[in-house]
Write a structure and sequence with these properties.
Number of strands: 3
Order of helices and strands: EEHEHHHHHH
Distance between the termini: 34 Å
Largest sheet: 3 strands, antiparallel
Helix content: 40-55%
Length: 175
């Protein structure tokens, strides 16, 4: 989690400022954000608050920050405001409840919105091939869903080849 640029507390707001000379990102905690909105001492210093009108806060749709803070998970009751202050979600359903707000945040932090994982370096060769087989099957499903039939045919051929290599028959395949 990023830290507040001014006080080193966990940052709950991520602001992008458009100034002459480029784009500046600010990561602020709730307190520093309020100061940021209320007062500006030196507009040239990115460390101090600035009342620039071109501020883009990462919010979804037409929701204001206040409306978004009132949004709560119907399952565990955590509000988006609580998530921003704690940096933790309350239950697995929060990912779907706050999906529109979390996706840009995850992409900003991790560069991706999906966890891809890594194979252990000491994994057996057959295990790596089975992981490859699972990956190819997922790609095949995505290709068919996207109606990319030529790509799907190539993936199918790769799957058949890998299954033959692993000695799997039609009724022994793994998912």
């Amino acid at each position: 989690m990023k830290k507040c640029r001014r006080c080193s507390k966990p940052a709950t707001l991520h602001i992008t400022e458009m100034r002459e000379g480029g784009v500046h990102e600010l990561h602020l905690c709730e307190t520093c954000y309020q100061e940021y909105l209320d007062f500006s001492e030196d507009p040239e210093d990115p460390e101090t608050p600035d009342s620039s009108p071109e501020i883009a806060i990462e919010l979804s749709g037409d929701q204001t920050l206040e409306e978004l803070d009132q949004t709560a998970c119907p399952n565990c009751g955590i509000s988006f405001r609580e998530f921003r202050s704690q940096g933790r979600l309350g239950c697995p359903h929060d990912y779907t409840e706050f999906e529109n707000e979390l996706l840009p945040l995850l992409e900003n932090i991790h560069g991706e919105t999906q966890h891809c994982g890594k194979l252990p370096t000491r994994a057996a060769d057959s295990s790596q091939r089975q992981y490859e087989l699972i990956r190819l099957r997922k790609e095949l499903q995505q290709a068919v869903a996207a109606e990319e039939y030529e790509s799907a045919a190539q993936l199918r051929d790769s799957i058949v080849s890998l299954e033959t290599e692993l000695g799997l028959t039609d009724n022994e395949t793994t998912d």
